[in-house]
Amino acid sequence: MAIQKGDFIKLSYTGRFEDGRVFDTTDEELAKTEEIFNPRGLYGGDVVIVGAGHTIDGLDEDLEGKEVGYTGTVVISPEKAFGPSNPKLVETVSITKLQDRNVHPGLPVEIDGKRGVVSRVIGRRVTVDFNSPLAGKTVNYEYTIEKLLETETEKIQGLLALYTGIREIEIETADGVAKIYIPTGLTFNQRWLMAKNRVATELFKYADFKEIQLIEKITAESEAQELAELTAEAEAEESSEPEI
Known about the structure:
Elements: E1 8-17, E2 22-25, H1 28-33, E3 46-49, H2 57-63, E4 71-76, E5 90-94, E6 108-111, E7 114-122, E8 125-129, E9 139-148, H3 152-164, E10 171-174, E11 177-183, H4 190-206, E12 211-217, H5 220-240
Parallel strand pairs: 11-12
Antiparallel strand pairs: 1-2, 1-3, 1-9, 4-9, 5-8, 6-7, 7-8, 10-11
Helix pairs in contact: 3-4
């Protein structure tokens, strides 16, 4: 069955620049080899909803009409990747604004809270590009559609993993109602606080739920773990305080 908008799929991919450099991948070993490994990242494939904006436009569009098991490569222009480079974000400043005076093209810098990369040095003047490193780049994605998710539980857990980085969260579903038991540690997680409304909205739109219940689950075990973590943090802070 061909993939269409609204489908929940598991997707493995590797994104490369035109020169072959990898900037993103779901392959943990490749990420380590290319020195882009993120210890907080979730590897092994992402669950995305086709057409929901979970990937860049060019990749999202290419998924439609493919079959589960499909492996291929798509070349994506900046307009449908990470956007064109904005010339207004390229500024020329005095070298005195930089802490590091050993300035050269390619040097990452931060000026007035903005991060950029030095693109040119002429005398005492430095041109800094504050665009995203991905802006204006043609990229290619090599990807595999591993699975079409069909059960309610798979869809919810996949979406939660995408937004929280946690694969296993307890879920119950019945009669159009989803009960999601939120672990204590996630309750005050900034990433989760910003994402939970979007999770609910997408489950209403793409999975036909009529009610989402977010239930904070506290157990003796989780409380003990939380206490142990807080105690360890407090001891670490104490040990780092200078003696008077």
